[in-house]
Amino acid sequence: MSRPIVLDLSAVILAVTADQPRVLTVRRRDAGHSTPDSVPAMPAGPLDPESDRTLELALRRWIREQTGIEVGYVEQLYTFADRDRDPRERSGGSRQVSVAYLALVHEQAVAAGVPAQWQNCYEFLPWEDRRGATRPPALRAALGAWATAAPSAATRRLREERCAICFGLTPAGWDGYLALERYELLYEAQLIGEARRESVPRSARSSRARDFGLGMQLDHRRILATALGRVRGKLKYRPLVFELLPTTFTLLQLQRVVEALAGVRLHKQNFRRLVAAARLVEGTGSIRSGGPGRPAELFRFRREVLRERQGPGVRLPVAATRRAAR
Amino acid sequence: MSRPIVLDLSAVILAVTADQPRVLTVRRRDAGHSTPDSVPAMPAGPLDPESDRTLELALRRWIREQTGIEVGYVEQLYTFADRDRDPRERSGGSRQVSVAYLALVHEQAVAAGVPAQWQNCYEFLPWEDRRGATRPPALRAALGAWATAAPSAATRRLREERCAICFGLTPAGWDGYLALERYELLYEAQLIGEARRESVPRSARSSRARDFGLGMQLDHRRILATALGRVRGKLKYRPLVFELLPTTFTLLQLQRVVEALAGVRLHKQNFRRLVAAARLVEGTGSIRSGGPGRPAELFRFRREVLRERQGPGVRLPVAATRRAAR
DNA sequence: GCTTTTTATACTCATATTGAGCATATAGCG
DNA sequence: CGCTATATGCTCAATATGAGTATAAAAAGC
Hints:
The structure is a homodimer.
Chain A: E1 5-17, E2 20-26, E3 44-46, H1 55-67, E4 73-80, H2 87-90, E5 95-104, E6 116-120, H3 121-124, H4 139-148, H5 153-166, H6 179-188, H7 193-199, H8 220-234, E7 248-249, H9 251-262, H10 268-277, E8 281-288, E9 296-301, H11 305-308, H12 318-325
Parallel strand pairs in A: 1-5
Antiparallel strand pairs in A: 1-2, 1-3, 2-6, 4-5, 7-9, 8-9
Helix pairs in contact in A: 4-5, 6-8
The first copy, chain A, binds a DNA duplex through helix 10 and helix 12.
């Protein structure tokens, strides 16, 4: 019989806390991984072809077992199956296929003793956060060097064009949806640690190459980039944000969650006009004070919007993302 | 060792010809299927975990072998893995997982002797075509009957609400993107032949239940619905249409392809204003005559639009889809 | 040759949406 | 009180959208 297939379920579990998108990571204790235990990974585990009726049920089971957390909204992301994406394969093991899922939750405490941890998504993909001045300053230079190092003038122009589109240096501006394209560009440019870890024996690794952001096990950072791109795209036409918010919230809370995911700042007055016009939310009458500033009204999601509007979501203004590109 | 996993690649290969979206189907000759050979299926074949480096390469290999056609644009759609989605499993076989892909091509002739065939997508999903008066007239009544037959008043209201949203009976109008939701609704309502074929022994099948549209093998119609929804959504923010058009085309050709996929009619003058304003195309100067009417200028896709615009695509006007709903 | 039909393309116009501000209200704090 | 921070209301110009009208240029029918 031919080499067997192992089908893994992996979960990108996202929450937004304190204006930051957070991802739930585990420190895997499985044997067989060549990467050290200290490298974070997504919760993941194999499908049991006998007893798991659906992929989603298997996924929820693994999440529960590995993190103790119950997830609500879940959606399938992508299936990763390139050969040698897992070093276990090279040592003659089975073919490792991974079906990745996206889950959205409110951040909840991890039980004591469970080796799971919430981490800021942008620690792994720092170039994706365009809200402040915190993006990696050396990135642009490194990309320029990569383009210059092209073997031919034509390749060089292609590389420059790709960089310009991916990083918003064109009139089109910054497009949050392209998170995966950016990851793959940086991977090709050897600016992602995993690119070297997987293709070169440990001893021969180029020490000159650098890594922007923290690394993850296997291709889990690619999976995270896929998830981020998907969320950013879907935000615009599905009411996903509300999965990440408490049942009642202020408009600023809503805006901050959108901004955290999209990675850009928005114009406050226009944002509230937008959600008001789209009738995405309704006031509850009650008011939340406590912090500084004038107290804000609490709102809740209007489910009825699904009946009233096509593609109900928070359409991000393009200009805001154009501004962020500067 | 536990029951093995077989990973299939299946391809929804779409083209648009004569104002109709077409899908490439095969008459499978494999043994082991309980469905008769005359039922169409998508091209599909198992991943060879030894020799197939990536899923996409395996997919292209299977498409070539089964249809003789070379596909260009390819994108992963979804992974289907529910238990018992394939009757081969029930007879103690391996777990059947299928990674579905979408491919876009220009319709090309199938070589003689190859058991592949182009068919109109809307023959399988007739309710998805809202361009004319051709939608199944009895569908609405059948859905109404299903809602009425609900076991409780609450369930009934839920069913009615789902029908209204899915079939555009609300102020939100018709949303082409919801193709999969509609399929699943009809499946639940026992208005899809496959729903009965799979859950009930052949002898006990309800003869009263009906099927709107032609059936396909296994869950391939569900996969087709997934593909249609994906194309319709992505059309709006990616220049997918041009994969289906020759290098030069008239604006009416472009509009007809969009309409065929979206399943709705569009306002001609506004459509050309839209593509002109988005700078998606550029005139070639040459002119195509031959048919009736004033000759039209030939246009070509402007690749540069990727640098200039965010989410470059054919944003369908919502109102057009609202009109179609009436 | 003239009319009808069919398609292409230009232009109009009222209305809606967007981007960017200004202005004012109401809290906590030193 | 004055300062700062947030909430919320409102304006205004620039664009985009929906729905037409008008005219041009071909083929087909007679």
